[in-house]
Amino acid sequence: MKTTFYALLSSAVIGLTVPGYAGTPYHTPGGQIEYNFFTKFTEQEAKEVAEVLARATEAGRAAILTHLPKILDPKIGDKGIRPDNFEELLRSILAAAIPKLTPVQKKMLDKYMEASGMVIAYNQDRLNVKGVGFKYVLPASWAKETNMIFRAMTGIPIKQSGPFYRIPTGIPDAFEKEVIAKFGKRDYSKPPYGEFGAIGTIGKQKVYRQVIPVVANIPLCLKCHGDDKGSLDILGYEKEGLKLNDLRGIISVAVPIKE
Ligand code: HEC
Fold it and tell me: Residue 244: which domain range?
């Protein structure tokens, strides 16, 4: 019975593939990212927005990291991490990087906090489960989810990319590859780690692009991204073989400019 079902299913799948692509599902080409940008900015505003979004992603990653020992502890149930206190922590970390926000930075940061709050809220069950160590709540997973919601709200992409990426949304484009090559040559033994910004285009849309490095600057990073290259981390990913203070990745933002 089971065999018949799978036989039927696979023939149905084969029936749906397109000639010339035998055996592979058909991917529809085309589609431009610029159709997704809902709010556009002046050049100056775009710079400010790109900066605050890159630094907010960095600050949120650091905020999750602050909580990580608690998050990974199987003995603790309720971790007490809520949208409001997480927002407070993120904003206090961000204030060290950007002490005074411009009006447009304030507005876009409020939207970003709305997205972050949703992520913290819907992850409550996962965060607070007892008896499980690794719950897949990490700096990178918080940033991935927050940035996906923020992009749905605004159209603005905030990518975690780099010389390594564990998920396909991290594939660097040509511009990002160049920046990664530049960043790879820097010394990250102490902050600040710097940044790179430039005007460019994505599809037909003029954008301001801001990129900041993400450095494996504490030993905890190496537990999952470290030394013993190829051995598996807690989630079964192959470790990338990094040493302390190596570049692990980038945060890359593109903000549309009005023309
Ligand atoms: C408990 C394991 C663990 C620890 C500790 C950890 N990471 Fe990760 N990291 C991961 C996993 C798993 C992913 C992929 C997450 C996903 O599915 O989006 C990831 C993704 C990333 C990414 C996004 C790019 C990519 O590969 O998709 C960066 C950047 C990153 N980590 C940097 C760091 C840094 C820097 C530290 C230390 C401050 C750190 N990580 C600590 C497991 C970890």
Answer: 42-256
Query: Which has the higher per-residue pLDDT, 211 or 14?
Result: 211
The predicted pLDDT at position 21 comes to: 44
Give CA–CA dist 194/208, Å, rounded. Answer: 17
Question: 158, 221, 242, 245: which to mutate for ligand 1, most atoms within 8 A of CB?
Answer: 221
Q: Given the CA of residue 164, which atom of ligand 1 is nearest to it?
A: 26
In a domain, 128, yes or no: yes
Number of separate domains in the chain: 1
Write out pLDDT tens, residues 190-208: 999 999 999 999 888 899 9
Does 12 map to a domain? no
pTM for this entry = 0.90
220 located within any domain: yes
Atom of ligand 1 minimally distant from the CA of 240:
26
Rounded-to-5 percentages of helix, strand, coil across the chain: 50, 15, 35
Q: Is residue 166 part of a domain?
A: yes
| Cα–Cα distance, 114 to 106 (Å, whole number) | 12
